[in-house]
Design brief:
Blueprint lengths: L31 H7 L5 H4 L25 E12 L4 E4 L4 H18 L5 E3 L8 E5 L11 E6 L2 E5 L3 H14 L14 E10 L5 E7 L7 H12 L5 E8 L2 E2 L8 H4 L16 H13 L3 E8 L4 H6 L28 H17 L4 E5 L8 H17 L3 E5 L14 E4 L12 H8 L3 E4 L2 H4 L21 H5 L15 E8 L7 H8 L3 H9 L7 H9 L2 H7 L13 H6 L3
Bound molecules: ligand TNX.
Length: 571
């Protein structure tokens, strides 16, 4: 039997040279993502085994394939290799529907550039040479996202206990192939995978990328494009910052003016925009097909001018302010003492929860400079039960730790404090969260904020947290930042991309790449063995892939890009 996989490729309409990764994964796969996250795969203790199942004795930094994130263990075998050819088949065992979807994804990606037929065979026996096999099996110790990959003359064997693990293994396999495998048009071979034995699993179960679609609005196609790109580096959470002072970006049926009026502009006064509920569901499903859980954020009680402008009754004085298109923060607040505020939040969170299969709703909570602290605390304390009533866990920026936040179920504080390069610092908000058994998602602004300029010459971005070079953004470890915060307090890492200065996917790419792969590696790979001197070589190897994909990125001088890539990116 051969699986069908004929979904047309999606393209960003106004830049036709952009390829999008093919998507043929079964819709049912979407269900596996939230379940995996909800099952608490996030902490170091539950993310995977602590021992290397395979010795790294045979690996050689100079000849090892250049993979990001760095696998837990990789043995190269120079006497072996596998070449994908015209007759190569992708073989998936029967009964593993989720694996068939991953096989179809791999087949479609390889077909575009190799031009080979690459049928996806569903069969349990007769797996001989000239095949890439995907098996939904493997030791439970590989965890919810781990995989094993062996490439020999006999073929490529990929196995994982979960479909998510197979998908991550496929991303590794694509990086083992020549960069032109990323092309959307047929390219010359050979398509050789080096002989390799990889065992791999993540350090943290939360490896997020946040996109601010409020300050500037980005189309569904642009968001999908970003999903394609973050999935390459095993990012598994897409946090969408859906509301802020400058725009409300998701249709809420019970409060329609939020989107139609509150979403009608953006920073600089452009037309803004919003996602219909069908479009939002489409994004969530697309992310799930890439084993990425979507976390929607409605920022409260501050960052709410777009909502306050849309409905006068949400204001303490009953007067709606005008829409806002500047870049200030901290001037707006929901009215903490009005009951309608909580009716509003119950309606919004209810609709959002129904649209979002993942277990988290992010309620913002940052920079509420126009809300008295005592009001802020009452507000958060009243909001958390609303989130829970809709069956979701509450996530918020680290300021929520000032309130009486309940740790269960699954409450998360996203820490954006600046960190010191050389020694741990005391951070009252991080400590407060941890003392309440609330786990942290680490997004230190002077390391992980992708909207920070690389240097004073960067054409986009801000620098309130400093200039963040590629090396800076790679040089930190989530478990050694704060005094009193250890590995088990940490759910994972996330790279936020705020969009005050960013207006399209081209600019998003320039800020995210090449820094995002480093944050992904910090979330996935063990801290021992991570070193800039070695990482920069693996990062350089990504450049030709991005060139083939037509992606924009900052050609940072501290990265030894291959010659042709540097020449092409002279800007
Ligand atoms: C701070 S950090 C913000 C955002 C801005 C960002 C710009 C945080 C939770 N809030 O409102 O967009 O800085 O870098």
């Amino acid at each position: 039997m051969t699986a069908q996989s004929a979904t047309p490729r999606r393209r960003v309409p106004w830049r036709s040279s952009w390829p999008s990764r093919p998507v043929t994964l079964l819709a049912a796969l979407a269900l596996t993502v939230p379940l995996a996250l909800g099952a608490g795969m996030g902490t170091a203790a539950s993310a995977g085994p602590q021992q290397d199942p395979v010795s790294t004795a045979g690996s050689d930094a100079t000849t090892a394939p250049l993979v990001i994130p760095k696998p837990v263990s990789m043995q190269t075998d120079p006497g072996q290799s596998f070449t994908v050819m015209g007759g190569t088949r992708i073989v998936v065992q029967p009964g593993a529907q989720a694996a068939v979807g991953v096989g179809a994804f791999l087949a479609e990606t390889l077909r575009r550039s190799t031009g080979f037929a690459l049928p996806v065979d569903i069969r349990s026996s007769g797996v001989t040479g000239n095949s890439i096999s995907l098996r939904l099996s493997g030791p439970a110790k590989l965890g919810a996202e781990g995989y094993r990959l062996d490439a020999t003359h006999g073929g490529v064997r990929l196995s994982a206990p979960t479909a998510a693990g197979l998908f991550h293994g496929v991303q590794t396999l694509l990086q083992l192939l020549p960069p032109r495998v990323e092309s959307t048009t047929v390219q010359p071979g050979p398509w050789t995978v080096p002989g390799v034995h990889i065992v791999d699993y993540p350090r943290f179960g939360w490896r997020g990328a946040m996109l601010d679609v409020s300050r500037h609005f980005f189309t569904v196609e642009e968001v999908k494009h970003y999903i394609d790109e973050i999935a390459m580096y095993k990012i598994n959470v897409l946090h969408l910052h859906l509301s802020d002072d400058q725009g409300w970006r998701i249709a809420i049926n019970s409060w329609p003016r939020l989107a139609t009026y509150g979403g009608s502009t953006e920073v600089g006064g452009g037309p803004g925009g919003y996602y219909t509920q069908a479009q939002y569901k489409d994004i969530v499903a697309y992310a799930a097909e890439h084993f990425i859980t979507t976390v929607p954020e409605i920022d409260t009680p501050g960052h709410t001018n777009a909502a306050l402008a849309s409905y006068a009754e949400l204001n303490c004085d009953g007067t709606a302010p005008p829409l806002y298109t500047g870049t200030d923060v901290g001037f707006s607040s929901l009215c903490v003492d009005k009951d309608i505020t909580y009716q509003f939040l119950d309606d919004v969170i209810g609709e959002l929860a129904a649209l979002t299969p993942g277990p988290y709703i992010h309620i913002g909570g940052d920079e509420a400079h126009s809300t008295l602290l005592s009001d802020y605390i009452r507000f958060i304390d009243r909001l958390q039960p609303i989130v829970h009533a809709h069956g979701k866990n509450m996530m918020g920026w680290n300021e929520i730790a000032q309130a009486d936040v309940q740790p269960s179920p699954g409450t998360l504080a996203q820490n954006w404090s600046l960190v010191n390069d050389s020694h741990p610092i005391y951070d009252a908000l991080a400590t407060a969260a941890v003392s309440k058994a609330v786990k942290l998602v680490m997004s230190p602004a002077n390391k992980a904020y992708l909207d920070m300029q690389y240097n004073p010459q960067s054409p986009y971005g801000l620098h309130w947290a400093g200039y963040v070079s590629v090396q800076d953004s790679y040089h930190w470890d989530p478990a050694t930042i704060f005094t009193g915060v250890t590995e088990s307090d940490i759910k994972g890492v996330e790279a936020p991309l705020w969009s005050e200065t960013l207006t399209n996917i081209h600019e998003i790419e320039y800020m995210a790449f090449p820094r995002l792969p480093g944050i992904a590696e910090i979330g996935w790979s063990a801290s021992q063995g991570r070193a800039w001197s070695e990482y920069r070589v693996r990062l350089a190897a990504q450049g030709p892939r991005w060139d083939v994909m037509g992606m924009n990125y900052y050609p940072a001088p501290e990265v030894p890009w291959a010659d042709f890539s540097t020449v092409q990116k002279a800007r």
